[in-house]
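Researcher: We're reviewing a set of sequences before deciding which ones to prioritize for further study. For each one, I'd like a predicted 3D structure that I can look through quickly. This is Polysaccharide lyase 14 domain-containing protein. If possible, include the structure in token form so it fits the rest of the review sheet.
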Amino acid sequence: MSEKSSLQECQPMLAPPQPRRRQRWLLVTAVVAAVVVFSAIFFPVYFTRSHQRSGDEGVSATNDRSITTPGAVWQQKTQFRDLDDFRISYYSSGQNNSKVLSSLPASAYKQQQVRIEMKRPNKALRRQDLTSSSSSSSSTTTTTRTATRTSTTSTRSTPSSTSTTSTATPRATSGSVLSIFYPRNSYTPSELPVGGTQFYAQTPFDLSRATSVTLNYSVFFPASYDFVQGGKLPGLYGGDEGCGGGNTAQSCWSTRMAWRTNGTGELYAYLPQDKQNITALLEVPPYSYVNPDYGMGALEYARGGWTNISQTITLSTNNTHPNGIFDIAVNGNRAIYFDQVYFPARIKGILFST
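Model: Here's the predicted structure for Polysaccharide lyase 14 domain-containing protein, in token form for your review sheet.
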């Protein structure tokens, strides 16, 4: 018997991202999907407030968290003012760098010349400590509408991997968006000025009994956005908070998304390496670098348009021969897939990071 929770809504690289300093905004709004779980590390997000679909078991508007049940759904409203329904446990950085806007600003579609400043950090940083830097003074938006759904069944497939590229979705959109700010000269949350934000969200559902969760969201990068060397985006996590930044991930895990130079994407996953089939993980196309970069180049993020991300995590039912799954789809097409994953802990919530 398994339970499935789905949800909707939003840096890995071969070489460490080169720190760059500049100013940029990321806007995030909610997109319809199943169980919503948000976690973040470097920028706060405001998604549409949750509501209950008629005919489905939903989440009440109280502060109590509901146990996941088959068919349960949580979906955000198009217009929202805060992230109260996400049950954010805490911000690790940059809580003041976010702002909810009633809609995506027209300036996000405009091409602008951006002055790029290069400045090295004043101390040595490990590869995993480097966060995304912004090269644009314009706004970046992401929209996400989320819903939660659970099921008593889950599917498995034989070990395989597929890879696809993606195109931007139409620019027309409505509803609130979350704007994330990166002050000029910011490049890491460990140095001032702090850019972006990071938080962990528990969601309205208690996911401790869920065996499969899907997080859906859309991200919008302004037409003039410079991807520079890369950055992170939201994903799911399990176990203790803090599964990132170079930690060994022995009792926790996280599966954030990320982008590289020119907007190429990948899964940025922290997993306990001694429990994984490393040989098979390295075969996830088109390229993988064990802990934490998988499927590098399997997707592309668009400028001046929305990119829809769907991330499904299914826990393993066999610790001897792990059969956990990460399944990433972009604009409806599967981009990254692997079904021999060992996850050391239950699904807990959303790690929102950039």
